[in-house]
Write a structure and sequence with these properties.
Length: 216
């Protein structure tokens, strides 16, 4: 969500704390790792201690808490700072890609495009839309676009159906399950060329109409 806005405010500035991932496929990347933002300086100070083995800032090699090794290397930090300087460009590029995909699918009945409310500013880290119910449609579209040399991605599985959490969440989360089964993510890297985008668009135009008519 880095670069997104809610009612004019940057996401990450809305609560007491916020976290951002810098994994390789995120808008800003350091290869791995991430950052935590705090409104309260005391929380920030404690987090800095915990990420450095719980070591005291005043007494070297003296551990005042059980901590972790969450330190980012200088090389990773330098990469992240350099990319932050290009964040506005990255978001602008991703929004342009999203606008192009929207223009292709906006009139296709059965497709739910990623929404953007009037009070929001979507950074489009991923461009994800929803197909009608039925996994066979998504599987068919995946296979056909793969034959066109285009890699796509399904939406992640809901946490509550995974083995470590299955026994702890017992409520109805059918909406999450539905979105997981219908969500479809298209290539949205800032490194996509215009030719890449047009190839994706051409593939969607050729395959989606028949898939939406259940001619799969």
């Amino acid at each position: 969500a880095l670069g997104s806005k809610y009612k004019g405010n940057e996401v990450g500035s809305l609560g007491d704390a916020a976290t951002f991932s810098f994994f390789g496929n995120k808008t800003i990347t350091t290869g791995e790792g991430g950052m935590v933002l705090f409104r309260n300086p005391e929380f920030a100070e404690r987090a800095a201690i915990l990420r450095d083995h719980g070591m005291s800032k005043e007494k070297r090699y003296w551990h005042i808490e059980v901590g972790f090794n969450y330190r980012m290397t200088n090389l990773q930090a330098a990469l992240g700072v350099a990319q932050m300087e290009r964040l506005d460009y990255f978001v602008s590029r991703k929004r342009s890609i999203a606008e192009y995909y929207n223009s292709i699918m906006k009139d296709m009945i059965g497709i739910t495009l990623p929404p953007e409310e009037v009070w929001a500013w979507n950074s489009y880290w991923l461009y994800t839309f929803l197909l009608p119910e039925g996994n066979e449609r998504r599987n068919t579209l995946t296979d056909r676009m793969n034959l066109d040399g285009i890699e796509t991605r399904p939406v992640f599985y809901p946490i509550h159906i995974m083995p470590p959490y299955r026994n702890y969440i017992r409520r109805d989360l059918s909406v999450s399950e539905s979105i997981s089964g219908r969500g479809f993510s298209l290539p949205s890297s800032v490194n996509l060329t215009e030719e890449d985008m047009y190839r994706v668009g051409d593939s969607l135009r050729r395959h989606l109409p028949t898939i939406l008519r259940r001619e799969v």
